[in-house]
Amino acid sequence: MSEAKKQIESLEPLVAVIEQLLGKIEFGSVELIFHHGKLVQLEKHEKVRFEKH
User: Is 46 helix (H, G, I), strand (E, B) or coil?
Assistant: First the structure.
């Protein structure tokens, strides 16, 4: 198996997690945190907004 194909396959679970997080956010952000070129943490920041009355 080629190195490029291995890299793509190793990213598939990460992409699935990111898609899941993005699909549920109405207002907010998802932050990817890297150390020494490797992803070590995902943070989800979500805002809840209330209607003005």
Answer: strand
pLDDT tens digits for range 4-14: 777 767 788 88
Which residues are paired to 38 by β-bridges? 35
pTM over 0.70: no
Half-sphere exposure of residue 4, counting CA atoms within 13 Å on the CB side? 0
Phi first, then psi, for residue 50 (nearest 5°) are: -110, 145
Convert 7-45 into a string of H (helix), E (strand) and C (coil).
HHHHHHHHHHHHHHHHHHCCCEEEEEEEECCEEEEEEEE
Token pair recorded at residue 40: 């070590």
- For residue 8 the two structure tokens come to 């793509």
